[in-house]
């Protein structure tokens, strides 16, 4: 997202193509499309592929997957289409990033984050961690987080900072409760909250309140997708992202 600076890049359209697309999960593609909206894109599109079909079949919507497959040759980019910009991303070289604070296009590679904290004078001690949201709480996301928590527990480690969990839907909450991820989070020290994005917005309101920690600043790390104050409409352009 550091490729797209606000507000210049609002009202854009993305189409994400390339061989790397087939390595992404369907829920991962959904997250990418949602984040496109967060930086102001009018829409973001992936070509229909087998990962989408498998997801539909696994979620008892195989009939929709079969219908989409019958039109699969139409559900991709137009041959010879022209774009305003081509951005190539090599997934094998892409490292994890931390985005923010305050704007999602301020992306820092995790290998450079320690230095960024020092250079910007950000508080070094993490006070709050939040996982989940309507965007980033798929079963896949929650299972990966639970795996990390379970590994920490096996070494006798629990959360030292406040740790909250927000399932993105009742279906996600019920499924991770059934399969044990929720119990792992609670054992690790997590507090399970409402199925929503509300945790983040409540926290934002609280932190901006004049009575909330008036003489202190502190760091919190979240999965949530909206960490900026305003989106402003701008010129419409189209971009093509090629993933290899």
Would you write up a description of this structure?
The protein is of the alpha/beta class and 244 residues long. It is 36% helix and 18% strand. The chain has helices at 26-38, 50-58, 62-70, 110-120, 139-154, 170-179, 181-188, 198-208; strands spanning 12-17, 43-45, 85-89, 97-99, 107-109, 126-132, 162-166, 191-192, 219-222, 237-243. A 4-stranded parallel β-sheet has the order 2-1-10-3, with helices on one face. α2 (50-58) packs antiparallel against α3 and α5 (139-154) packs across α7 (181-188). It is globular.
Blueprint (SSEs and pairs):
Layout: E1 12-17, H1 26-38, E2 43-45, H2 50-58, H3 62-70, E3 85-89, E4 97-99, E5 107-109, H4 110-120, E6 126-132, H5 139-154, E7 162-166, H6 170-179, H7 181-188, E8 191-192, H8 198-208, E9 219-222, E10 237-243
Parallel strand pairs: 1-2, 1-10, 3-10, 6-7, 6-9, 7-8
Antiparallel strand pairs: 4-5
Helix pairs in contact: 2-3, 5-7
Brief write-up:
The chain is built from eight helices and ten strands. α2 packs antiparallel against α3 and α5 crosses α7. Helix content is 36%, strand content 18%.
In total, how many domains does the architecture comprise?
A: 2
| Helix count from the secondary structure assignment | 8
Q: What is the CATH first-level class name of the largest domain?
A: Alpha Beta
Instruction: Please give the order of strands in the largest beta sheet.
Output: 2-1-10-3
- The helical percent reads 25-40%
CATH topology of the largest domain: Aconitase, domain 3
- What is the structural class? alpha/beta
Total strand segments: 10
- Unreliable residue runs: 208-215, 229-241
Described by its quaternary structure, the protein is single chain
Please state the overall shape, judged from the principal axes of the Cα atoms: globular
Mean pLDDT: 80
Gyration radius, rounded: 20 Å
Strand percent estimate: 15-25%
Q: What is the straight-line distance between the termini?
A: 17 Å
Largest sheet: 4 strands, parallel
Order of helix and strand elements from N to C terminus: EHEHHEEEHEHEHHEHEE
């Amino acid at each position: 997202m550091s490729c797209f600076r606000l507000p210049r890049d609002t009202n854009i359209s993305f189409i994400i193509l390339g061989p790397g697309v087939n390595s992404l999960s369907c829920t991962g593609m959904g997250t990418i499309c949602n984040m496109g909206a967060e930086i102001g894109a009018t829409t973001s599109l992936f070509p229909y592929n087998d990962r989408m079909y498998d997801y539909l079949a696994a979620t008892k919507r195989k009939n929709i997957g079969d219908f989409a497959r019958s039109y699969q040759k139409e559900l991709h980019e137009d041959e010879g289409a022209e774009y305003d910009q081509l951005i190539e991303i090599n997934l094998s070289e892409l490292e994890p990033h931390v985005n923010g604070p305050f704007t999602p296009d301020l992306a820092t590679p995790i290998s450079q984050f320690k230095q960024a904290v020092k250079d910007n004078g950000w508080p070094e001690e993490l006070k709050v961690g939040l996982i989940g949201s309507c965007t980033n709480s798929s079963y896949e996301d929650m299972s990966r987080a639970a795996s990390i928590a379970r590994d920490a527990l096996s070494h006798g480690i629990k959360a030292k900072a406040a740790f909250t969990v927000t399932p993105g839907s009742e279906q996600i909450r019920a499924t991770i409760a059934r399969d044990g991820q929720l119990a792992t989070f609670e054992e690790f020290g997590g507090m399970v909250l409402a199925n929503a994005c509300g945790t983040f917005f409540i926290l934002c309101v609280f932190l901006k309140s004049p009575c909330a920690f008036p003489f202190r600043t502190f760091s919190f790390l979240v999965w949530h997708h909206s960490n900026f104050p305003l989106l402003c409409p701008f010129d419409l352009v189209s971009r093509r992202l090629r993933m290899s």
